[in-house]
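Holo prediction. Input below; ligand is S-adenosylmethionine.
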Amino acid sequence: MAKGRKPSFSQHKPRKRFGQNFLEDPGIIDHIVSAIAPQNNDLMVEIGPGLGAITEHLVDQVGQMAVVELDRDLIPNLRISFATRNNFHIYEGDALKFDYNRIPSDLGGEQMRIVGNLPYNISTPLLFHLISYQNQIADMHFMLQKEVVDRLAAGVGENSYGRLGIMIQYYCRVEPLFLVPPTAFNPPPKVDSAIVRLVPHETLPITTQCTRSLNKIVTTAFTQRRKTVRNALKSVADDALLEQAGISPEVRPEQVSLAQFARLTDLVLATDQPEPQA
Ligand code: SAM
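Structure of the complex:
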């Protein structure tokens, strides 16, 4: 597809159930592509290429370009638009259930770079699905609801601090990049959007023996975020255990750092261990 030219399938009616808000602002698209900084040996994976607004600016600059698209009505058009590109590969299916190991195994290359103007209704489960592939991912650039980017980047004590930020920051460095107004899309969404870069840590700076338990404890804590940690976590830990983890039982969950939650998780796991057999 020639850059800047309307795709041949511009008649496609955006579908709400697939979260289709297509990017149309060329300045914003350029800004996103510059932030991604595609390289000629990249294995680039785009989730939800839609009408190809971002895809067409990446495909010629990378080694291999794979796209994962759920709306089967868009697939024939993507095939036609990128028919001359030997490095372009379509995976038809649900990005939430997709096995991302397939892509490096089909196309070669070690680590994927992931991009996407994501359907907002699936962004949180999709982020959790993707971080299970953190060793195969070099970085991720996503358009998300601004409020979700705030939650991803929030530090301890901030209003948006909670489970999403804590769990993603366990695996990734989070860099909010810039805001995108509703006018950049067709149809315009009702909320502001923002671009975020997520870079999986090469070595995890904070660790716990069991991330599922960490996730459970953090979820329990923030289900009752207005309560003290003592009350919010009373089914999990007593005051002595909280204090051992460096957490004052009087504070609210939003005052507890990732490192403290990780320490508490390991202490809870150690306490739950069955007594060694004599
Ligand atoms: N990248 C295009 C753009 O920026 O104009 C389209 C972005 S639109 C917000 C979201 C895209 O994700 C649509 O193409 C939609 O069909 C696709 N999509 C929605 N749910 C999906 C899923 N579960 N798996 C893969 N693609 C999905």
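The chain has two domains: 7-200, 211-272. That is the main takeaway for now.
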